[in-house]
């Protein structure tokens, strides 16, 4: 039997050098006894073979750093056994199903949970009369995590002085340095803080007695911590009275609200206001598309997106429908297609400020796939329903030329299917004295896969916009 | 009017805030106070500092600035027609409470909501003043979550985003028509527009913030749906969630089982849905966000989730033809759909099976719930045979459940 002596319960450096010697000497795991002896009178010199070189995966050292903080007595032996096996089974470290690895992982998990609970359940108390703001806390961690967690409190409370006392070790911060000392006694910590009364008030009030679930609470806040949590003293009483409180709420007769309140509620109830007469001002259109229920597209859309631009305007652009970005912003042509549109318009020599820009359909039609909203083409019924608003905009804007961007726009403006290929490049006569120009939708230009075809289509698009600008007398 | 002391105000205004399900403090940009100024830190993952006897975590000081409110939403304890006790904090009182609690390590930060007083803008301005004072006067680096008032002006919402880590707007009711009956002053379009603007603002400011490496704008938004106050079925609720995630990139949709409130409005049901329904909705939501399920696979519109089994087991029972799957060869997507196998267990299975053929014991060690998985998997030492298609399989998988006490 070999005895390996460590300086402290969390002496990882000592464990490493002992394990290194033992493994180099070929000492089998079951032939080692690990002990902690604080007073080391007999510091054995490392044996020469200890220098023998071998490497372990970084993952093993990370695991060891955690496992050694566990309170289980067999942690040193377990780590040495894994180290020993690693020589013959180098892939052991990557096998989460191995029994030793699973046990080590469970220990590491318990340690990391204990560290997390320490971050959560330390309760500082103000030391009255100190020159700098000074706090102290008594805490009993489930595993030996005090030194490991201290840097967290340094990062959080750098500008305060504080001390955390535990049975294993004490850590103190003075604004500049972190000091570690021997474990302490609860009596060394302050016993109260004026804020605790407020904290208990908060704790009791935020609890909803109609949802009592003490099992869930104990799972997350185990009883071992309650002793040092000022709010925990309230728990038995809160649990005991919860059922009666909830029952009383349900049993209490409801009181009818006052007439004043009911009248106000009625006044606020929004009735759909469209439908009385066709809108004649852009304010009516803007308000109208927001509450429009002529088809179902409003349901999943954020808002109705009316057209924008000068009224009257010589030139009007009609797109298909708002896209994802337009739907969020409430403005037409601000997304990727809008950028293509702006660029082409500038190349054609037309300023967007001179034109009215709108869509054939005012609400975003889409399908949710995962976390994306995928554009869907509006059907004929939806386009027809929305002509109510497009026609109103045409009457208000009174354009000389209407440019239809894509087939849906053409359907909305002309009222019947109008193929782009057969009609682009020429001026169409529309019934309301305006001239019509049909061309591609800018998002079509984004989707053309072949570069040459894309360049050609884009050039045609710019040409169509230029023609429209000329017809409208803007160029 | 009698002057209330701070403790009484805290009691009233935290009691009024307890129906909001969210208390999360995760997802903030990492920051600390190592440069010696101010107080506080966030490390990405939130910390729950206590748990109430209702099992819910307490991470933030969750309070209302005031519970006076000009609205009359039936489900809300603070509606104008309710006879609840009223109180109002001053900006300074909230700031001091937050700092005092934070320095004693009771909380991760502040979750501030409010009843609407005077106007939406006036209320929002007061809330922004609290956050601004914490950040600018006290260099507070903890977490701040602000509830937005949907009808407040976009400029105020943007200003709130400058000081908060997360903002939220509660939709509360899953169905638009019930919003109209139960919350006549709320307008679903107002809410959606405010969420849409916030998504654009968050995306717009995310890139410069990342580059600057410091907190410049809120990182996420969330919302809450109340379950069981109206007629909405689970399928409708999850459809609404899918839309919200897709349209506004919400980080979370919270589900809150409608809870009886004192002095309830006569427009509300007196019974409450079992908390289990809320739990099932969270499970289904989780499947949609992390396991690649689409809403129609989980539950149909107009239908409720099966309360007796978790939604993943429910799906597997309805799709037995896809099982059993071989643990040794199935791809990740398939493994994620096996009941009893969580995301972590799946990752470990993928690592472990490169080294050896896995047994049921191995599955247990990687953290799978073997009892639930057994009927759906083939391992080195196990094949379910006729068990997968057995009539009584569902009964075997249903855990005896403590039913609601009320």
Task: Summarize this entry quickly.
The complex is a heterodimer of chains A (475) and B (406). Chain A has helices at 12-24, 58-67, 75-88, 99-121, 146-156, 195-206, 214-220, 235-251, 259-268, 282-290, 324-329, 336-348, 380-397, 407-414, 420-423, 442-447, 451-471, and strands at residues 2-6, 32-36, 125-126, 134-138, 161-165, 169-173, 178-182, 315-319, 355-359, 366-369, 372-375, 401-405, 428-429, 435-439.
SSE diagram, text form:
The complex is a heterodimer of chains A (475) and B (406).
Chain A: E1 2-6, H1 12-24, E2 32-36, H2 58-67, H3 75-88, H4 99-121, E3 125-126, E4 134-138, H5 146-156, E5 161-165, E6 169-173, E7 178-182, H6 195-206, H7 214-220, H8 235-251, H9 259-268, H10 282-290, E8 315-319, H11 324-329, H12 336-348, E9 355-359, E10 366-369, E11 372-375, H13 380-397, E12 401-405, H14 407-414, H15 420-423, E13 428-429, E14 435-439, H16 442-447, H17 451-471
Parallel strand pairs in A: 1-2, 4-5, 8-9, 8-12, 12-14
Antiparallel strand pairs in A: 3-4, 5-6, 6-7, 10-11, 13-14
Chain B: H1 6-15, E1 50-51, E2 57-58, E3 60-64, H2 91-103, E4 109-113, H3 120-137, E5 143-147, H4 154-163, E6 166-168, H5 176-182, H6 188-212, E7 220-227, H7 234-248, E8 252-257, H8 275-290, H9 295-298, H10 311-318, E9 325-326, H11 332-336, H12 343-352, H13 360-365, H14 370-373, E10 377-378, H15 393-397
Parallel strand pairs in B: 3-4, 4-5, 5-6, 6-7, 7-8, 9-10
Antiparallel strand pairs in B: 1-2
Helix pairs in contact in B: 2-3, 3-4, 4-6, 7-8
